[in-house]
Specification:
With 221 residues, the chain is α+β, with helices and mostly antiparallel strands. Helices cover 26% and strands 24% of the residues.
Length: 221
């Protein structure tokens, strides 16, 4: 089975982007559970003997399926947190969400697991589905990414047209990516790619169940 490396995410973006244009009008929404989970506390039974109380439960600030570490994660690094600014149904809120979404993409390459991304796009987003499928194929093959970490260089508002998918706002996000390789447990390199900078993406969102969802995502020129 061919492995989806970062050569995949730069070279195949144009192809997937074309598919995304055909699928952009699709309105079937993927609505995974994005609620955080707080472990249930246990109530100690009444006894004449002292009992040890359960630890104080803490709220997990990420969806339960989001991996907290991986082969490409930096020391002490944590998954990106959904920003408070992205909770507003405004252009500024959409911009804040667009930046966060790109960070979930980066986390997918840090962990070779696109679970975080899947919580924030609809089924009709062709590039979203293509990227997550490619990362899953890499993981299924027993390979993972080294390097290739993404940085958001800038973010700005963008016009909606000619996007036909359900959209409230669009953002233009410019990113850079470090040099990257796809390797296995022995360190064998399967493919790789040089660093990139100044790569623009248009990302459009719709407000679904009081939360943003990506409906359109494509690399622009």
């Amino acid at each position: 089975m061919p492995v989806m490396g970062r050569r995949g995410w730069w070279a195949v973006l144009a192809l997937i982007g074309a598919v995304a244009l055909l699928l952009a009008g699709c309105t079937n929404e993927a609505e995974p559970n994005t609620s955080t989970v707080t472990p249930a506390s246990s109530t100690p039974s009444i006894s004449a003997r002292p009992s040890t109380a359960s630890p104080t439960p803490t709220s997990r600030p990420y969806p339960v399926d989001v991996p907290l570490t991986g082969h490409n994660v930096k020391p002490s690094e944590k998954p990106p947190l959904y920003p408070a600014a992205a909770r507003a149904r405004t252009q500024d809120g959409a911009n804040a969400f667009a930046e966060f979404y790109m960070h979930t993409w980066d986390w997918a390459y840090a962990t070779t697991n696109p679970a975080y991304m899947r919580h924030y796009y609809v089924a009709g987003c062709g590039l979203c589905s293509g990227v997550t499928s490619g990362i899953e194929k890499t993981a299924k093959a027993g390979h993972w990414y080294l390097g290739g970490r993404l940085t958001v260089q800038s973010i700005s508002s963008a016009p909606i047209g000619p996007v036909t998918a359900p959209t409230d706002y669009c953002s233009m996000v410019v990113i850079s990516g470090t040099a990257q390789s796809v390797v296995d447990s022995t360190g064998k390199v399967f493919n790789g790619e040089a660093a990139h900078s100044g790569v623009p993406f248009k990302l459009c969102v719709d407000w679904v169940n009081s939360q943003w969802r990506v409906t359109y995502w494509a690399r622009t020129t």
